[in-house]
Amino acid sequence: MSFLGVSGMQYSGASLAGSRILLVEDSNLFTSMIRARMKELLDIDVEICRNFDELQLAYDKSSEPIKLAISNMNLPGAEKGEALTYLLDLSIPTIAFTGTFLEGTRDELIAKDVVDYILKDNVFAVDMLAESICRFLTNHRHHVLIVDDSATARALLSSRLKRYNFRVSVAESGSKALELLRANPDIGLMITDYNMPDMDGFDLTRRIRATTGSHELRIIGVSSSNNRLLSARFLKAGGNDFILRPFIDEEFYCRVNQNLDTLLQIRLARRVTETA
């Protein structure tokens, strides 16, 4: 199966058919569009629940695990977001599909730890939803390493990445990061803090780049410093991207996706060149 998303995401691999996906939506227009598009693009047959009662019945009637849910925030019998809360309370990964984008609504969704939220306000909404679904179902193939001497920072980033279905390893120091990279050649992305006691993010990046190129490992630096030149220094040390804390969830996920998409495109291009 192959898939090209609206943001440039590419997927080529095993079919995603067979994943149990719930669509909790009362609009006939959107249910028809989403069902047809998911089948066409991802070969997925979505299971539709048009109200809160149908959602509860769908959960109770089958022991097959729900891989992912897409939920409208306002349903008949659940006008205050009860369906979304119900899904998240069951620890079912959920994408919110909403027609409104108010700051309060966005903050509420992020606080609930939704996988993503998609706005119904443009013609690409269904295609954006398809890409978000494809990313979630395939993110497990990506192994990400977090390097930070702060246990709180490691836990926060790890939680965010696991919410998106990535495989995650953590290191509390640069020396531990080098050890994990040697033991796990499948790690494709490293997110490293700048200020660490044994070696800073610059030194760690330089050591990695002595043997490992960007076609094998992407590196994103993070820092809470207000020194805007850190990004330039980090990029010159061999980093691929840099984010200043505090950053918002959407920016963080976008940067992660862009770097992993680039890595896959580079690897694909190299394979094509090698077989030519």
TrEMBL record:
Gene3D superfamilies tied to this protein: 3.40.50.2300
SMART domains the record matches: REC (SM00448)
Domain Response regulatory: start-end pairs: 20-135, 143-260
CDD domains on file: REC_2_GGDEF
Keywords: Phosphoprotein, Transcription, Transcription regulation
Entry coiled-coil feature ranges: none
Protein name: Response regulator receiver protein
Residues recorded as bearing 4-aspartylphosphate in the entry: 193
Organism superkingdom: Bacteria
InterPro entries, alphabetized: Bact_response_regulator, CheY-like_superfamily, Sig_transdc_resp-reg_receiver
An example Gene Ontology biological process: phosphorelay signal transduction system
Classification via SUPFAM superfamilies: CheY-like (SSF52172)
